[in-house]
Amino acid sequence: MLTLVLAAPLFLVFEVWQLVLSERYLGIKQIARGADPRTLGLGEVTAFFWSTLLLIYWAWMVLLLVPTFGRVHGLALIVVTMIGFSLRRGSGLKWVLVILTFEGAIRIGLLLSLSVMAWRRF
Q1: How far is CA 5 from CA 22, 76, 83, 109, 111, in A?
Q2: Regarding predicted confidence, which is higher, 74 or 39?
Q3: Which end of the chain has fewer CB atoms < 10 Å from its terminal CB, N or C?
Q4: How far apart are CA 96 and CA 27, in angstroms?
Q5: Cα 18 vs. chain centroid, distance in angstroms?
Q6: This prediction's pTM
Q7: Secondary structure of 71-100 in HEC code, one letter for each residue
Q8: Crossing angle between the packed helical segments 44-63 and 8-26, to the nearest 10 degrees
Q9: Separation CA 68–CA 90 (nearest Å)
Q10: How far apart are CA 36 and CA 81, in angstroms?
Q11: Per-residue model confidence (pLDDT) at position 28
Q12: Could you read off the pLDDT of 3-62 as tens digits, one per residue?
């Protein structure tokens, strides 16, 4: 089960990538222009990899609930993601970037903590 936790650095990179993409599509420049990011669209390859990685990420978070090592981090990641999603659904476009940034920062902190714990145990 330690190998399951050792995947945390990969998802840490994914979280940083998500923050970069969210800044690109929902950034201050887009808001200033009044552009709706839903009309910009992602490239097919980017959308495929992003969707696939999100599904794998969710499966990994659920699998983290099985071993005792990493269970708290897995539960915290799921809770933060669900709270962030519910806040983003009810927010205006200008606040979505703020919520995504805070949510991503919390998830990055949790993944970094999990990575360090796994490294020390390894």
Answers
A1: 26, 14, 23, 15, 10
A2: 74
A3: C
A4: 10
A5: 6
A6: 0.82
A7: HHHHHHHHHHHHHHHHHHHCCCHHHHHHHH
A8: 140
A9: 34
A10: 23
A11: 67
A12: 788 888 889 999 998 888 777 776 766 667 776 666 666 678 878 888 899 999 999 999
Tokens, residue 31 = 């808001």
Question: What are the tokens at 73?
Answer: 């981090």
Give the Cα separation of 88 and 65 in Å (integer).
25
Contacts of 12 (CB under 8 A, 6+ apart): 108, 111, 112, 115
Amino acid at 8: A
Three-state DSSP at 64 gives coil
Q: Backbone phi, then psi, for 92, in 5-degree steps?
A: -75, 170
Structure tokens at 51: 């969707």
What would the two tokens of residue 112 be? 């970094």
CA distance 122 to 117: 9
